[in-house]
Amino acid sequence: MLHPHLARGALVATLLAAAIAHAQQPGAVTVPVGELRPGQSLRAIYSDGFVLSSVDGKNELRIAASAQLDGRYYPGTPGSPDSFDIRRARLDLGAKLLGFMDIRVQAALEDTPYLRNAFMDLYIQRWLRLRVGQFKVPFSTQWLTLDNQLDFLERSTAEPLYPFIDRGAMLWGGILRDRIVYNLGVFDGAGVDADAPKGDIDHHKEVAYRLFLQPFRKLGPRPLQGLYFAGQGTYEVTAVPTRRFETRGLVAPDFESVMWRWRTEQTLGTNGRDTDLLTATIARKQRWGAEAHYLLGPLTLSAEWVMIRYTDIQMYHELWQGQSKRVTHDAVGAAQDAEVHSISGYVSVFVTGERKYLDNFGWRQPTPLRPIGGGADRGWGALELLARVSRTWVPQKYHGAFADVTPVSVKGYTTADATGIKGPVPAEGASITAAVFDGAKLMYELTLGANWTLNYHCRVQADYTYLVAPNFRTDAAGNGVGGIVTGANAENLDALQKNQQKRSVHELGVRFIFRI
Q1: What is the dihedral of CA 426, 428, 433, 436, to 10 degrees?
Q2: What's the CA dihedral at 148, 143, 509, 297 to 10 degrees?
Q3: In this structure, what are the phi and psi dihedrals at residue 236, rounded to the nearest 5 degrees?
Q4: How far apart are the first and last CA of the chain?
Q5: CA pair distance 276, 162, nearest whole angstrom
Q6: What CA–CA distance (Å, rounded) separates 45 from 173?
Q7: pTM given for the model
């Protein structure tokens, strides 16, 4: 049976295809310049995608879809199963209305389908635009780059170092002929509508700001015009670890492992009615980032530093009766701060001569100079060779947040502790190690890649990724400590294989990207 989201997407695509066919019929009436009236047809054009447009170009309907199929192989890493995966599948509708309004609605159909982008952009002045809805938080060129435009299979880091798509409003615009582009927004800080369907999880909001600079744009000698810089940050008074940013841990660039797991949200035991658990609160969350990029013909050099700081993470041992009555609320240890940094750099070159593009909203891959199936200029497409290195670490002063540094044993509540609870308590006799993080405090990444862009519609990526945690060790019980947590983001159901800490992980991956 077709998934309801897929069915709705197919219906929309069918209706739009019918509209295109009608517009292409002989005798279709075009719209007078400067006016769009109900009942009149639009002209249908194809420009790297399907477009319905008014004659004056002030009104457009854009139709796009893309999908990514991955093949991944993890030699020597049993916790991460070799697999084929539909990494992404997207249906995208966009519109330009009256020359000053842009609207985008995008559905993500992979995994558990959800509404990804849903926003409106109002063009007030070149230096003043307003974007409202659900869209990417302005932070990091790597993060802002469209998923089908990425240089490698995965970014060098992930949430919570990066923010995500969120609901809010943002003012942005370009000044000095777009040599300076600013972004200033206010967001829920909880993720997309699927993460928190009824809105925010508390009354606090996240403020995000970003400056994107091209100081020599159309100025000076050509080699200087390819210099770009960016600086950004976010600030949020928060409440609890969220499932979008904290509890899933920090996913590594091999996609299936995590650098560390967030370990405060654990259940010691439950009897179906009462629950004995470990939880936490957070006072503040802040991010900072800085970037430098250089483009010179087919050569690209890029460097990025991002970090996140948590203030006053306080763990609690709690006993709940049902979903609404908290019987106990005992602090575990003192409040702790935590900080994580990541720095990455990459180099790429198009051996076939193409040139990347960069703007405030990320990287854009070029269309091949001689695409496959490109008419008179047809050739073998574009070939790009790439290499990336990154270092992700927790500074020494914050190592105390890890389970292997200062472990605190929390024992389940006994009947004597549980005033008001009748019958046996759910976790008497159980115990758990309480900590904020569990995993690697330092990880290096090396990725070598090759991208073959056949034409606008198809691109093939191949990567080799090597991850290593140099501080990994084996404790007295023979358990791995301070390593990469393998398979923690995988579908592997074998509990004896996944979530093992390892010193290193190898991955070979290939991705087919196709879009219309």
Answers
A1: 40
A2: 70
A3: -150, 130
A4: 25
A5: 32
A6: 29
A7: 0.89
